[in-house]
Amino acid sequence: MSELFTTAGQRLMKELKRANAYEVPRISHVVVNVGVGKQRDNKAFIEAVVKDLATITGQKPHERVARKAVAGFNVRQGNLVGYRVTLRGQRAADFTERMIRVTLPRVRDFRGIPTSQFDGRGNISVGISEQLAFPEIQADKTDVIFGLQITFVTTARTNKDGQALMRALGFPLTNEQE
């Protein structure tokens, strides 16, 4: 793991008053989701999404299909609804570090991540409206713009522990409600 994670773990151990290093919360994996919406039949859009998502994460995305038909959204069972990538281990650590240090400062009108984004078990979901915030994507070479949802899954059991972990890693959390 990177230096960021080891120093954050040591600080958290003191801050949360944990006797054992295995009690300290950590990021177990990172899930990156992209929904294709009404563009599911547009082959050029789908290819661009797959290419850009693979470039951002360093891993081939997994196709997600609808499990149930939803007439209101004009979705049938088996239709493509999006792509997902799950990052674990060193890839998750590298992605998290890149996210904190490079990508979030590049997001337009970014004012921090509200603490209301935590799910009650210490996991946090962050939405990025344009994939162009990632430095790997060159705006002049991409044809489409799409948003991503990034979920950082932690071993924390409470939001308090999850927030302490994210603050120790350097996430810009804000207390304002969204």
For the largest beta-sheet, the strand count, sense and barrel status come to: 5 strands, antiparallel
**Spatial shape:** globular
The protein's oligomeric status is: single chain
Q: What structural category do the secondary elements indicate?
A: alpha+beta
List how many beta strands DSSP finds. Answer: 7
What share of residues is helical? Answer: 25-40%
Strands ordered across the widest β-sheet = 2-3-1-6-5
Radius of gyration, whole Å = 18 Å
Order of helix and strand elements from N to C terminus: HEHEEHEEEHE
CA(first)-CA(last) distance: 33 Å
Description:
This protein is an alpha+beta fold and 178 residues long. Helices cover 32% and strands 21% of the residues. It has four helices and seven strands, in the order αβαββαβββαβ. It has helices spanning 3-15, 43-57, 89-106, 159-169, and strands spanning 27-35, 62-65, 80-88, 113-114, 124-128, 148-154, 173-174. A five-stranded antiparallel beta sheet has the order 2-3-1-6-5. Strands 4-7 form a two-stranded parallel ribbon. Helix 1 (3-15) crosses helix 4 (159-169). The longest helix has 18 residues, at 89-106. It is globular, with a radius of gyration of 18 Å.
